[in-house]
Structure formats: C-alpha cells, structure tokens
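FAQ: What does a ligand-bound record look like?

Like this one, built around guanosine-5'-triphosphate:
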Amino acid sequence: MASAVTQAQPDEINASSYVGFDSITRQIEHKLLKRGFQFNVMVVGQTGLGKSTLVNTLFASHLVESKGRFDPETQPRATTEIHAQSHVIVENGVRLRLNIIDTPGYGDQINNEGCWDPIVKYIKDQHSAYLRKELTAMRDRFIPDTRIHCCIFFINPTGHTLKPIDIAVLKKLAEVVNVVPVIAKSDSLTLEERAAFKQRIMAEMQHHQIRLYPFDSEENDEPELQLNERIRDMLPFAVIGSERTVTIDGKAVRGRKNRWGVINVEDERHCEFVYLRNFLTRTHLQDLIETTAQIHYETFRSKQLLALKESSAKQQSSGGA
Ligand SMILES: Nc1nc2c(ncn2[C@@H]2O[C@H](COP(=O)(O)OP(=O)(O)OP(=O)(O)O)[C@@H](O)[C@H]2O)c(=O)[nH]1
Ligand SMILES: [Mg+2]
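The answer part, i.e. the structure of the complex:
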C-alpha cells in the first residue's frame, strides 16, 4: 500500500490528497492565544539603583511602588521584601500575564554576607513547586508557571569595576536563572565612560566565568545566532528609568528633567532602554521562557531526582541490613 502511494504522480498527490496538516501552525496559534502567555521577570541589584522605577518604565504603568517621589516632602519608599505582582497585558488580541518580582536592594548592611540567599531561594522555590506539581499522580493539565524567566541585574554606574558582592550574587544567580545585566542610572556616565565601563564589566564576567543569557544552542539558525551575538555585544544595557511623563516637541514621553535639559528614556541617543525592551518583549520572550524550562529547570530537576533516588537507595540498603 505504501509503495502505491510513493509511486503516484506528485501532482496528483497535491491535487487530490491535500489533508490540510499545514494548518497546524494556525491551530497551535489559536490554542496558544486562548491560553495566553506567562512571563516572569525579576529585578535584582544593590539598594536604590532604580529597580522599581525601571519596571514601571518598562511596562509603561505604575505597576510597582518605587522610591520615585513626586514632591520632595514625601518619604522615600524602599522595597523591603520580595514582592510579586501580576498584570495582564493585552496587545492585538494576545494576552500576556506578566509577573514582576521586585526584590529589596542589598548591600547596605555592615555585614552583607548571604544577603542574596532569600533571592536565590525564591528562584529555587519556584522550581521545586513546579517539580512537585509535575510529580503528583493526578497532575494538572497546565501547571501554573511561576519559574523566573529573566533576572535583570542592576549594576551601580560607578564607572570602575564590579563590587565583590555583585560578583558573588551574579555567580549564584547565573547558576539558576537567565541573567541579563543592565547599567542602572546610566545618565550619570558620559558616552566614553559608558563604553569603557561596559567593556570592563564584560571582561570581569568572563574572568569570573559568569554565564550570561543569551545562550547559543544547536537549534539556533544563522539569523538567531547573529542576533544573539549582537545582543552580547550590547550587554550590559545602559538604562535610565523614569515614572514621569515629560513633554518634548509637544509629545508626552517618559523622561527625566534636569536643570540642563530633558532626557527621553525612549530615545536611543540618550540610553539603551529601548534595546532592553525590544530584547525582552520582541525578540527573546519565547526563548527566555524555553531556556528556563530546558536548561535551568532541567538542571534543578535532575539534581533533585538523583538526590531522591540516592536517599531511597540508602534507606533500602539500611532497611535490608
Ligand atoms: N538619575 C536617575 N535616577 C533614577 C533613575 N531611576 C530611578 N531613579 C531614582 O532613584 C531613586 C530610587 O529608585 P527606586 O526605583 O525606588 O530604586 P530601587 O532599586 O527599587 O530601590 P530599593 O527598592 O530600595 O532597592 C528614586 O528617587 C528614582 O527616581 C535613573 O535612571 N536615573
Ligand atoms: Mg525598589
């Protein structure tokens, strides 16, 4: 039977035996659109670097309380605990559930040893919650995904080098999550300082063998590899955040007003905020989600399952003895 089919004229097969499986992409799209997407972003960095402000700038609304003050009398509001907020954003019929995990800044204590532990624990807890749900006999068809897909790491714009504490935190984070570094408050650096600082940071990352996102995989085709290379050349993104709207040429934009002028955070000549936003939402959103599942979660999962196997083997052998 099979040979009869292969011997038929190709034209005939196309004309009369069209079964329509090419519509599978549309079927998948329809299903995915109905289900919607979920994206979990975490911001980490030393205290007061503008983490909460940048989150609000990124998603163009007041999503997270930041220290940003509208008049000088109001008390600054520092983030004091790990705080997850969920928002549903709809764009052209695509529903994105965005979870933002704002973390308290670290590095302002006398002894900063282990101050990053709660953050790393939070990330691992999400993996272990997912694994537990996956291993139940009657598992849900869709397990709610709270695993962190992207961790934006804020670097102090000192223009010098990374602090030892930053290196310690980065090392821990890069083992469990996709890390994307940004230079915070980059309005404080000149263009030359910024370029030199970027190079120095990346050299340090290499020296300390900190593996940053994006990763190349065998599945990547040539354009994807080139895009990743371009992103790597740009890291860390030098960003500026603002929760205020300022008017430039009659247009309302997110910006910061100084005595000497106005910074438009969305202007590529002023900072790389737009590159970061495009990278997160336009080019790498799906890949960040996939990499989390296929690399970070897989590593966690296999470690946990191996440990489980070993402990049950030990129990059996001690029971038998
Ligand atoms: N110059 C400048 N100031 C900024 C920028 N982003 C935020 N700020 C200001 O920095 C201050 C701290 O901002 P937050 O967003 O609360 O900082 P944070 O990192 O969330 O602080 P913690 O939660 O305490 O760690 C506020 O006064 C912001 O207005 C920036 O890009 N440039
Ligand atoms: Mg904050």
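Follow-up question: can I read anything off the structure? Yes, for example: The beta strands are 37-45, 83-91, 94-102, 150-155, 179-183, 237-238, 245-248, 251-258, 261-264.
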